Amino acid sequence: MGSNRKTEVEVVAYSGCFVCGDKNDIGLKLRFLWDGEACRTSFTATEEFCGYHRLLHGGILATILDEVMIKAILAMDIVAVTGEMTVKYLAPVNTDDRIDFEARVLKHRGRLFLTEGSAHNQVGVLVASATAKYIEVAKSDLREQLLSSLDVDNK
User: Fold this and answer.
1) How many domains does the structure of the chain reveal?
2) Residues 80, 118: contact at Cβ < 8 Å?
């Protein structure tokens, strides 16, 4: 039997990043996968990241939504920075809940990229959604700094 699942590749990371860095001792250490259309990751809420007892801090949700959306752009070999982001919180996330994040680029015009992201709990409830605008970084010292951060051989 064949699978309808698309081939996924891991999106490049910066080892010191709070969200995706595997060498950041206090970080989330998330892996981001790209299937050519959407970027995905999963996170299980733990007590360290609570805002209230047994409830995940909304800032952590926003942080992961930002990261999954920008990784969708980075997966297309575009280096960008966040310009604006709007998050809608729709349901609480309890500790031990697994949250599945997904994001895609809706459109781009010149250096501006518009994205959308979603976060669903393990039973499929939409707990948060986001839209954002990212700006591609032009050739500059900032671009070189960002590219030198990525853990790839061909910078």
Assistant:
1) 1
2) no
